[in-house]
Amino acid sequence: MKKSLILCGVALSALLISACSSGPQYIDPSNSKAYASMGLDYHDIEKAASDSVRSLLSSAQVREISRGSKPKVLMISGVINDTMQTIDTDQLSRKITRDMRNSGKFVLTLAQGAKTEKGINMARKARDNDEFDQRTTIEKGSLKSAELSLSGKIVQKNTKVGSKQRTDYFFLLTLTNLKDGTVIWDDEVNIIKLGSNSSVSW
């Protein structure tokens, strides 16, 4: 009887350990490529953003317009998701504009663009409201208008290759001069993946 209880206890302990070990686990982003999928992941967004910023900052036209001590005001006009997946395109555009700001040649405005900061208009509604000390409200004419606009598109194309599926992703990005509408810079970053039919991201 005692031996049976011990065996039952050992079996129960093994079961609990097995259940615990099959739970969620943290993955170091630097080592997470081993868990790659056919869909767009962290590494793909990082690569697309890094390659794009490197191309942008090395462009002769961008270097020309960014000369001087005054940074250019930039807005995000939007990145279109033309893939078969749900993608937060803001992750890509904000990564790019963050690196652009870190260069010291650009500043980002959220007063204009595809995604504006709601707090800007909320703060200005306090103007002429008797409930607020008018000496603390923001005066008219203080917003900076954008000089440049960043826009883009992510495209996905699936192709059957023998018994496998190939998925091509195209990151198309453009920097536009809002004063005259001319394109200052544009670039394309390609990411290609090959996997089984069952792993394709539709």
The value of Rg in angstroms is 25 Å
- Helix proportion range: 25-40%
Q: Whole-Å distance between the termini?
A: 57 Å
The helix/strand series, from N terminus to C terminus, equals HHHEHEHEEE
CATH architectural grouping of the domain at 39-114 and 144-196:
3-Layer(aba) Sandwich
Question: CATH first level of the domain at 39-114 and 144-196: which class?
Answer: Alpha Beta
Number of discrete helical segments: 5
- Uncertain spans, ≥5 residues at pLDDT below 50? 14-20
Approximately what portion of the residues adopt beta-strand conformation? 25-35%
- Give the beta-strand count: 5
Basic shape: globular
CATH topological fold name of the domain at 39-114 and 144-196 = Rossmann fold
Instruction: Tell me about the largest β-sheet.
Output: 5 strands, mixed
* Class from secondary-structure proportions: alpha/beta
Structural summary, described in words:
The structure is a single chain. The chain is of the alpha/beta class and 202 residues long. The chain has a domain at 39-114 and 144-196: 3-Layer(aba) Sandwich (Rossmann fold). It is 32% helix and 28% strand. Strand 3 (148-161) and strand 4 form a beta hairpin. Helix 2 runs parallel beside helix 4 (89-102). The longest helix is centred in the N-terminal third of the chain and has 20 residues, at 2-21. The protein is globular and about 70 Å long. The model is unreliable at 14-20 (pLDDT under 50). Residues 1-19 form the signal peptide. InterPro entries: LpoB (IPR014094). Pfam families: LpoB.
Blueprint of the fold:
Elements: H1 2-21, H2 42-58, H3 60-65, E1 72-82, H4 89-102, E2 106-108, H5 118-124, E3 148-161, E4 164-177, E5 183-196
Parallel strand pairs: 1-2, 1-3
Antiparallel strand pairs: 3-4, 4-5
